[in-house]
Design brief:
globular, 3-stranded antiparallel beta sheet, single chain
C-alpha cells in the first residue's frame, strides 16, 4: 500500500479498462466473468477477494483499498434499469455496505480524510465525493 495506507489506482485504469488482478500487501482481488455494459461502456464482473468469491453481485473498477476495506462500484438493478452504487467490502467479514445514491458511472479517484472522491463519468469532468460515514451499515 502507498502513503496513508490506501492503495491508489494505477494511472491509466478507467471503468472501461482496468487491471482485473490486483495485489497489494496481503490483499488479492481477481475479477472473473467480466463483460462490457453496452458498447464502449464500463466493464463489470464477479470478484474474489483473497480467494473468497463474492456471489450474486457484479462489480466495476477500478477499486480503492485500505487496510480493512475494499471500495468498489457495485452494479445493481434499480426497478427497471441497472446503475452503480459505491460499495465497501470488509476484508475480514466480506460484508457489503453501500451508499444509497445511484450513479451511471463511478470512477474512483482517492480516499482522503474520511472522504471517497470519484468522477461521474470516464472523461473525469464532474467530480463528486461521499463521506465514509454515508455508508449504510446494517
Amino acid at each position: 500500500m502507498k502513503k496513508n495506507d490506501c492503495y491508489t489506482i494505477r494511472k491509466f485504469d478507467t471503468p472501461i479498462d482496468f487491471s482485473t488482478e490486483i495485489k497489494a500487501d496481503n490483499i488479492e482481488i481477481i475479477y472473473c466473468n467480466t463483460f462490457e455494459i453496452g458498447q464502449g461502456g464500463p466493464v463489470v464482473g464477479n470478484i474474489s477477494i483473497n480467494g473468497n468469491f463474492i456471489p450474486q453481485h457484479y462489480f466495476g473498477g477500478p477499486v480503492l483499498l485500505d487496510k480493512k476495506n475494499v471500495y468498489i462500484p457495485i452494479y445493481m438493478k434499480k426497478m427497471f434499469f441497472w446503475r452503480f452504487k459505491l460499495a465497501r467490502i470488509n476484508l475480514g467479514s466480506f460484508k457489503i455496505d453501500t451508499i444509497r445514491k445511484w450513479e451511471s458511472v463511478i470512477f474512483l479517484d482517492k480516499i482522503e480524510n474520511g472522504i471517497v472522491f470519484f468522477y461521474k463519468e470516464v472523461s473525469k469532468t464532474h467530480s463528486n465525493y461521499y463521506k465514509l460515514s454515508d455508508f449504510n451499515t446494517k
